[in-house]
Queue: 2 jobs
Job 1
Amino acid sequence: MRKDGRKLEETRPITAKAGVIKNADGSAMFQIGDTIAYAAVYGPRELYPKFLQDPTKGVLRCKYNMMPFSGSGERVKPGPSRRSVEISLVTEKALLPVLNLEEFPNAVVDVFIELPQTDAGTRCAGICAAAIALADAGIAMRDLVSAVSVGKVNEQIMVDLNYDEESTEGEVADIPVAFMPKTDKITLLQMDGEITKEELVKALEMGKIACKEIYEIQKATLKEKYSGESDEE
Amino acid sequence: MGIMIKEKEIVVPGEDLATGMDYLPSYGTFREGEKIIAGKLGLVSIDGRLIRVIPLSGKYMPKVGDTIIGKISDVTINGWRVDINSAYSAMLSMKDGTSEFIARGSDLTKYYSFGDYIVTKIINVTTQNLVDLTMKAPGLRKLGEGRIIHVNTYKVPRIIGKQGSMITMIKDATGSRITVGQNGVVWIQGEPENEMIAEEAIRKIESESHTSGLTDRIKEFLEKKKQRSDEK
């Protein structure tokens, strides 16, 4: 049993909604516990400056941002930081394997991820929201991407660490992982802390199961938004 | 073996549609081993052995033969560059621009100038999505005064209706001229008040496109609006 009453393999409660930002071509909100991520997708659209264009396929651009008031209340300096630039990059790499960008050479798809409230697991929540938003934007994809963090706190392997657990004194391992749920292939794997090989394998196995649950939520969210469309005359 | 979904079901990317070689993947789907998988979010359409996914959202992708509304964004040495509400801009060359003869070196802004809207037709799309347009077909013209609105391109068939029934109804009720481009750009011209009613009706179709009995509801809506404006 954990501090907040969850079982080791249990994620925090999840809610998700597609189409939350009207101006965007596709958008989604993904909330896991107290972490809230919004993703907005614009494009495919023309890419400038021109030297960034790729004549063989489209380009994906991700921007991850934590809002200044999102954490514990201590003001975070707005704008890009070393951390947010890195997370933007890994998010991009986590989403690329499922996208079919060949359909729009020389164009760009922009993904903006904003976090108004954070309690650890932000990059995972951001990736989950972005996957829903990309599908909502009608982009050609091979699969969705589901992500969750796994780790070790107080000698226990667990899923979806919150900030309280992540910042526990002593030996803590925090491992954000993203799966393509259909093929069980990993698209993101990072680690903070220490863990043995056997424990890592066990943790990833737990993460895989949690991602399957998240995938079902993502799927249901998208189907809900378009549910009315099937009884078209 | 066989089909795993129903006709007109909503699928998300990555969902299995069918297994076995009895079916063939068409637009919006792909084959992986034995399976046919959805590659886009949309409605499933099964046509004999062909399985398709009809998209419900997304940007306009240029297609040959589409009549669209574009905006002149640049005037070049041999034609006009046109913004077609897509990831790609299109070229209207001098020789396809008008039926008149244009002498070399003449001022092209005389025909179409920056910011002008035109009804035009796509004659060619290359693999790199370079788009060529023409003005030489019936109904293609420069648009004058009026208002331009943008709608979801996948709702355009609903706005036009069967054999243009829906759009004709709005035109008749509001006494306005309306042109709907396949790229989701709509041009409305009429009395300012009627233009607003037409826009509202189109927005209503866009948001309620999936419900049944839409034509009747739009008719009712237009009648109610008309009554109100008559009273004034």
Note: The domain at 14-222 of chain A is CATH 3.30.230.70 (Ribosomal Protein S5; domain 2).
Job 2
Amino acid sequence: MDQILGNISLLIQFPVVNINIVLQGVLIGAIFVLAAYGLALVWGVMNVKNLAQGDFVIAGGYASWWFNTNLGLPALLGIPLAFAILWGIGWVIYKLVIRRVIERDLFTSLLATFGVGIVMAQSMNLLFSADTQSLRLDYDSLDFFDNLVNLPIAKLVGAITAVSLAIAVIVFMKRSRMGQAIRATAQDARAARVMGIDTEKVYAFTFSLNAAICGAAGAIIVLVWEIQPFFGMGYSIRSFVIVTAAGLGNLPGVIAAGFGIGILEQFGAHIFGISYQQAIAVLLLLMVLIYRLAQQRRNRQVLQ
Amino acid sequence: MSVKPIAIAAAIATMMSYSAAANAAAHSKCAELKIGSAISLTGKYTTAGAHAKAGYDFAVKKIDEAGGVKIAGKCYNFKIIYYDDESKGDRGATLAERLINQDKVQYMLGPYSSGLTKAIAPITEKYKIPMVEAEGASRSLFNKGYKYLFAVLSTSEQYLASAITLAAEMAKKNGKDPSSVKVAIAVENDPFSLDIRAGVKEDAAKFGMKVVIDEKLPRDLSDMAPILNKVKLLKPDVLIVSGHSKGAATAVRQVAEMKIKVPMLAMTHCESANVIGKFGKDAEKVLCSTQWSETLSYKDELFGSASDYNKEIKAAPGSAYANKSVPYQTAQASAAVYVLKDAFERSGSLDKDKLRDALTKTNMKTFYGGIKFSAAGNNIAKPMVLRQIQNGKYVVVAPSAFAAGKLAWPRN
């Protein structure tokens, strides 16, 4: 308790630190947004809650890391490469597993994707070993206010890439033929089929796109943090929290919630200690669920 | 048509069985002596588990080449039966039961990590199976009155306590009172790291130092910026980090990224995290605790000197260490196998209780250091070593009796 009070008083004593914490939260939140957006896509279009989301992220990180360490490609090139490779992996997983569980109940798809996640984590463990890995961009850190606020340029580059990719995907969904088909399928798959949309193709595309987005997010994560084959769960949980908090189909909500969770985690870690950083995400999920339940009861809606 | 593939398959099978028989004949003049071990081949301790296994296997091979284990005039070769404990305690305990009850193993080598050892020790104790372990350093393993547990390594509260002594020395040298030193601690929430924390706090209290940060790192750590933020504000003189290899990697990376200035940065697992290779100059002047260093002047009959051991395991075919330094986790695993050989030869019997009695009387000088067990089973003949990264190399700086170099201080 003393420690918690001490930590809060630090925030008051050095107000500049708050800026730093918010900044770190925003920079990392941008990456959470990316993974969460992918989840929202799959969830909304196919009603599949993908528990392997985090493992896609980690796989993307390893893809980028592998190209950099084995072929000496520039670290930033790893982002499009991870996007492409995870697209392929996502497509294979869709054809092998997801296709068979799409029409089943919620529990089956949860179990199936959970299984996919375990298989992926273990495969990465066998392929790349359990060492933590990271890539370094040889950029300096900018510092302000007597080094109380740091802005590592690598993190800035990561966040900007994440935001640009998110914008690209949003434009794609709005403008392109495929994007329209995806949105149509999300609204009513049966009607879309009647109108001549090949929903099977739409599903495969959506799932691959999600894997690819996660892959790119992972390729950014490996630039700013560490990855390890078994770190996927943390990103899965964060994605779920963000999507649940924002609500399906609420894109601005996803973005706001992503940044919010980034910032809250950093504040939580500062005040309660770093071991509670992820607990804060889970606590948030709980609170959101309780709130939503209460809201639903008021509106007399039913859960599907 | 259909005969052909079958014929080919049969031919291949015959060839394979011949070569297998030939292989078996080549090196089994000695009988086989089964030892069991649950080891982490998957899960969070995969890397460290692989180091331990490499150490076990290397020692088994060395003993084989040196003529096996001689027990009452007959010769034996160790054969280790491994199971993957998935880095989980309950799994490790199940596997220990399986090794003992199904594989009829009479002697065990330890798993990786204090947590796993803690899970397995009650089982080996129940069946009175002697277990020599090399990777569980938590002192809580040695206050339970276990009679069949023997550990070749120094207990974990000693790991970084010497960094505190060093900080006190530096303070004195600069005309300051050691009690003015401020200590920051960031350790993972597991038995091993919590022991380190206890050792550090104990020694800090001895000097009257103030612990200004005392935080626990999560298991899946990839960001410790919140702690480093506080380091910036509270300006401690020593920062202690212990979180296995991910803790070392994260700390070195983010300390550089956030331009943290702290006179002394001490951590564990620098070698297994390969901080020199990965972070280059950012890892300079980091203090790393180690059970063992290849530059120490220890030696024995089987492995030669510490540097011989280092050279040979690097040169072994298919060695994982061809181009990175050999971590102490590997060396101590080899030492554990050596201790078993020594005890078997002294007991002159395959009886597990006689082996256990022989183990209690162990008093060896090995390439890894002196080995002599206390009544509780921990090794009391070997000190912990503190090394500093200087110009991309590990230089022993403490304890001063073995120190090859001088401490560079402050860090920046």
Note: Chain A has a mean pLDDT of 88.
